Amino acid sequence: MPAPARKYSQPPEPGRLLRLAAVAAALVLVLFPILWMVFASMRPTLETLSDPPVWLPRDVTFAAYGKLLADPTQLRYFFNTYLIALATAGLSVLLGSLSAYGFSRFRIAGARYILLGLLGVQLLPNVALVLPFFNMAQALGIHNTYLALIVADTSFALPIAAWLLKGFFDSIPVALEDAAMLDGCTRLQSLRYVVLPLALPGLIGTAVFAFLWAWNEFLFAVVLTAGPEAAPLTIRMSQFFSQYGRDWNGIMALNVVASIPLLVAFVWLQRWVVEGMTAGAVK
Amino acid sequence: MPRSARELTGYFFIAPTLIFLALVIALPLISTVKLSFEELEFRSRSTTFVGLANYAELLGDRLFWRSLWNSFLFALGSTVGHLVVGICFALLLQGGWASAALRNFARGLLILPWLFSLAAAALIWGLLYQATGPINHLLVASGLFGRPIDFLGNPDLALWSLVLINVWKAYPFYMVMILGGLQAIPGDLYEAARIDGAGAWQRFRYVTLPLLRPIIVATTALDMITTFTTFDLVKIMTNGGPMRSTQTLTFYIWQVGLRDVNFGYGAAMSVAMLLILGVATLLYLRVVSRGIDAGAGAEI
Questions:
Q1: Which tens digits make up the pLDDT trace of B176-205?
Q2: What is the Cα–Cα distance from B255 to B233, expressed in whole angstroms?
Q3: What is the pLDDT of residue A278?
Q4: Superfamily for domain range B49-293
Q5: Lowest-confidence range among A234-238, B40-44, B137-141, B272-276?
Q6: Could you give the C-alpha distances from A41 to A35, A76, A235, B84, B251, in angstroms and in order?
Q7: I need a labelling partner for B141 at 20 to 30 A (CA). Which of A54, A126, B23, B171 fits?
C-alpha cells in the first residue's frame, strides 16, 4: 500500500482498539479448531470427550505419537503420500516448465485457445474421469499402485503448473537468453541455465502447489487404491469415521504429523505465493 | 535461426504436456461419453449399446435431481460463506492498524485452514461437532439451546454443517485475492469520497466494492464450479446421509458407478454434470479471456 494512502485509512484510536479486538476474535475462531486438534493429539481420548470440556490439556501425554511412529502400517501411509506428492510435483514442474517455455518464447498457433483449454481442464469435475481411470488402471494392471495415482494427480496439477510457470517465464527478459544463445547455447540449455535459475522461486512455488494438491487429494485415491500398499493419508483419515471405538488421540496425532509438510508449504506461501498471486490479481 | 525452424521448436516444448493431457484427460473423457451409451453386463464383462436409455433413466431418477439440488445448495452456501468471510477478514487486515510485521503474522495465521485437506478438516470438525464437544457445550451453556445439536445426524442441518467446514477451510483464498485487490485501490479515491462526505459504509459500497468486482466475479465463478463437485466431506463424514440429505451429485455418481458397478448410468450422470459445469466454465473462461486481452496474468 502506498504511503499516502495509509494516512487516510489510519483509523482513530478507539477504532483501532476495536479493530485489534476484531482481529483477535477472528484469530480465535479460525485457529481454535486447529488448536483443538493439537490438544486432542496430546491427551487421552477420555479427556478430549469429557463433559463439560476440559479446555486446556491436563493429562498431557505424547504416547499417541510414539505409537504412530512405531506402527509400520501407519508409516506406510506417510511414505505413500510423500512419494505420490513429490512425484506429482516433480512431473508437473518438469512438463509444466517445458510447455510454459514453449508458450512464453514461441509463436504457437492457437496458443490462446490451448491455454484457455488448460485452464478449463482444471475446472473439469474429477468424477467425470474416474470411471475410465478405474477401467484403464485395471486394464494396465496398475490399479492400487503409486503410478496410477501419480498420473491421475498430475493430470490436474500439470495445467495449473503450466499456467503459473508461463507467468514467471514471461517476466524474464528475452535479452538475457539472446546473449546466452549468441554464446552458443541451444534452446534447451538456455532454458536450463538462464531461465530456470531466474525462475527458481516460481518453480518452487509451483511445486508446492502441485505437492499440496496431491497431498490433499481424495477422490482419485478412493477410486484407484485398495489397501495400504499405495493409499495416501487422506484414505487413512477417511476410514476413521467407520471405525468402532474411535481413538481420537491416535488419529489426531496422525493428523498433526500429516500437517507438517503443510506448515513448510505455509512458510513458502507467506514468502512467495501470496505476493505472487496478489501481484497477478492486480496487474 | 530460420523462422520456420524457430516455430517448430516451440511445438516440441509444448508437445509432452499436450500428449500427456490427451492421454489422461481427453481419452478418458471420450471414454466416459461412450460408456454413457452402454450397459455393462457384469458376469460376461461385455457391454451392449443401449442408446439414450441411461439418459432416459436419469430424467426420471428422483435421486439424481435430489443430488443435483444438494450439490447446488452446497456450492451456493459455500460460495456465499467464503465471500462474506473473505471480504470481512480482508477488510479487517487492510490498512495500518498495527505494525507491518504483526499484520503479516495475523494474515499468515488466517491463511492456515486453507492448507488442510478436507479429510483432515473432516477429522477436526468431526471432533468439534461431538455432542459433548466444545461447540455444543457453548451453545447449551449460553442458554440458546436446551440440548446438544446433532450437527451431522439431523437431516435439516447436516448439509449446512458440511458447508460450515468448507467455509472454514477455503475462505482464505478469497481473503488473499481480495487483499490483493484492496491494495490496488488508490488512496486518493477514498480521500475524494471522504471530502464529498461519504461515510465508512458508503466508501465501501461505492468505492471498494465496484473496484473489487472483477476479482470477486472471477473468484466466485471458480468457487461455484469447484464446490459444486464436492465429494470428500460427504464420503468421509455422512456417506450421503442422514436420509440422503447430504448426497451430492459426485457422491451419487461414485456410489452408482463404482460402488454398485453401474458404469453406464454413472457415466451418463457424469456427462450431465460435465454439461452443467461446461456452461459455467465457458462463462468463466470468457471472463478470464478478456483478462488476457487486457494483459492481466493468470487468475487462479
A1: 889 888 888 888 888 888 888 888 888 888
A2: 15
A3: 47
A4: MetI-like (1.10.3720.10)
A5: B40-44
A6: 10, 20, 19, 32, 30
A7: B171
Residues in chain B with CB shorter than 8 Å from the CB of A4 are 187-188
What's this model's pTM, rounded to 2 decimal places? 0.89
CA gyration radius for chain B?
24
Cβ atoms < 10 Å from Cβ of A77: 21
Cell digits of residue B21: 493431457
Of the CA atoms within 13 Å of residue A272, those in its CB half-sphere come to 17
Contact B92 A160 (CB under 8 A): no
Q: Report residue B5's pLDDT band, with 50, 70 and 90 as the boundaries.
A: low
Yes or no, beta carbons of B254 and A130 under 8 Å apart: yes
* Bond preceding residue A173 cis, omega within 30 of 0: no
Q: Does B20 touch chain A (CB under 8 A)?
A: yes
Q: Which residues contact B130 (CB under 8 A, 6 or more apart)?
A: A49, B136
Domain ranges for chain B: 49-293
Q: Cβ–Cβ of A219/B179 closer than 8 Å?
A: no
- Give, to the nearest 10 degrees, the angle between helix A111-123 and helix B3-21: 10
CA dist A182 and A175 (Å) reads 11
Q: How big is the CA angle at B115 (ends B246 and A170), to the nearest 5 degrees?
A: 115
Q: What is the pLDDT of residue B228?
A: 94
pLDDT tens digit sequence for A97-109: 999 999 998 888 8
What is d(CA A109, CA A113) in angstroms, rounded to the nearest whole number?
9
Q: How high is the pLDDT of residue A122? A: 82
Question: Per-residue pLDDT tens for B135-163?
Answer: 999 999 988 888 899 999 999 999 999 99
| Minimum CA–CA partner of A28 in chain B | B110
Cβ of A281 within 8 Å of Cβ of B125? The answer is: no
Contact flag B180-A281 (C-beta cutoff 8 Å): yes
The minimal CB distance from B190 to the residues A9, A19, A53 is found for A9
Query: Domain boundaries in chain A?
Result: 3-64, 66-282
Q: Do B235 and A112 touch (CB under 8 A)?
A: no
Mean pLDDT (whole number) for A120-129: 88
Sort A56 into a burial class: Cβ within 10 Å, 0-12 / 13-18 / 19+: exposed
Q: Flag if A128 and B295 touch (Cβ within 8 Å).
A: no
pLDDT band at A10 (very low <50, low <70, confident <90, very high): low
Question: Would you tell me which residues 186-225 of chain B have a C-beta closer than 8 angstroms to some C-beta of chain A?
Answer: 186-188, 190-191, 194, 215, 222, 225
B110: distance to nearest CA of chain A, Å?
7
Contact B169/B186 with Cβ under 8 angstroms?
no
Which residue of chain B is at minimal alpha-carbon distance from A273?
B176
Assigned superfamily of A66-282: MetI-like (1.10.3720.10)
Cβ–Cβ pairs < 8 A, chains A and B: 325
